[in-house]
Every structure is written in structure tokens, then in C-alpha cells.
């Protein structure tokens, strides 16, 4: 209980419900994805979001949306060291967001597939929307 000067004691509110007012079939939610995919898909998707959830790595993915680039080119565009960019690319590659190929001394990276391109475009498009539009 919380007591303040001159106020009557207040009871602690509880959020536990004794009985649910809704039955299991009272609310149909067609199109809900939570039952459409196995738990492993959710784990994998969460790992993808963690990998892409850093501004520098997301910028790398956005640059690669324009096509294949070598590590040196990506480092110059990011104004970052080769080692830093290589570590970021290694993490993105581990989550299968990017793929690479070697040509002599150069390593070229590209987005792994169209799903990654769609994900990056959707995230950036949603992020560019005005705040009032996203909140509704």
C-alpha cells in the first residue's frame, strides 16, 4: 500500500485475471504468421534482424543492393578500415545475408538473394515514413 499525507490508503492493483472473458474461438485472426512457421524460423529471423540491426551493417547491405562490391570499395564508401568492414561482412555472411566470391586478391560481396534485398528495402522504406504515419 502507498500512503501519502492526507490521503487514504490505496490498494495495490493487480493485473492477474481470474478468468478470461474471451473463449479460444472468440477472435479469429486469419493471416497471423505465428502459427504458420516453425520455431526455428523465428530463431533464424531474429538472428537476421540482430545482424542487420546495426546502422553500419545496414548501410553495407544498402550499398550491396546496388550490386556486387569489393571490400576495398565498401571500406572507402563507409570511411572505415578494411578490418572493420571485413568483420561486419563476416557477421552478415554468417547469417547468410551476403555472399562472396574471390577474384585474385580481391573479395567481392553481394546480397545473398532477393529476400535480403526485399528486407532492406522494406526496412528503409518503413524507416523513411513520417512518424505520424508509422504510429497509426
Write out key terms for the chains shown:
Arc Repressor Mutant, subunit A, 136 residues, elongated, 48% helix, mainly alpha
What do these coordinates show?
The chain has 136 residues and is mostly helical. It has a single domain, classed as Arc Repressor Mutant, subunit A, CATH 1.10.10.10. Helix content is 48%, strand content 10%. It has 6 helices and 3 strands. Strand 2 and strand 3 form a beta hairpin. Helix 3 crosses helix 4. The radius of gyration is 24 Å and the shape is elongated.
Order of helices and strands: HHEHHEEHH
Structural class: mainly alpha
CATH superfamily, called what? Answer: Winged helix-like DNA-binding domain superfamily/Winged helix DNA-binding domain
Estimate nothing, just give the exact number of structural domains. Answer: 1
Q: What sort of overall outline do the alpha carbons produce when their principal axes are compared?
A: elongated
Q: Percentage of helical residues? A: 40-55%
Mean of the pLDDT scores?
87
CATH topology: Arc Repressor Mutant, subunit A
Q: What Rg, in angstroms, do the CA atoms define?
A: 24 Å
Strand content is 5-15%
List the quaternary state of the chains. Answer: single chain
Question: Main sheet?
Answer: 3 strands, antiparallel
Please give the count of helices: 6
Strand order in the sheet with the most strands: 1-3-2
CATH level-two architecture:
Orthogonal Bundle
> Using DSSP, what is the number of strands?
3
Distance between the ends: 37 Å
Amino acid at each position: 500500500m502507498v500512503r501519502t499525507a492526507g490521503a487514504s490508503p490505496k490498494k495495490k492493483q493487480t493485473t492477474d485475471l481470474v478468468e478470461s472473458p474471451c473463449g479460444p474461438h472468440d477472435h479469429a485472426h486469419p493471416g497471423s504468421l505465428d502459427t504458420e512457421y516453425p520455431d526455428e524460423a523465428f530463431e533464424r529471423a531474429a538472428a537476421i534482424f540482430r545482424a542487420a540491426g546495426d546502422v553500419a551493417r545496414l548501410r553495407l547491405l544498402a550499398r550491396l543492393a546496388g550490386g556486387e562490391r569489393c571490400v576495398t570499395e565498401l571500406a572507402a564508401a563507409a570511411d572505415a578500415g578494411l578490418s572493420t568492414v571485413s568483420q561486419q561482412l563476416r557477421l552478415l555472411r554468417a547469417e547468410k545475408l551476403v555472399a562472396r566470391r574471390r577474384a585474385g586478391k580481391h573479395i567481392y560481396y553481394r546480397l545473398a538473394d532477393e529476400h535480403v534485398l526485399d528486407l532492406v528495402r522494406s526496412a528503409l522504406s518503413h524507416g523513411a515514413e513520417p512518424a505520424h504515419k508509422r504510429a497509426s
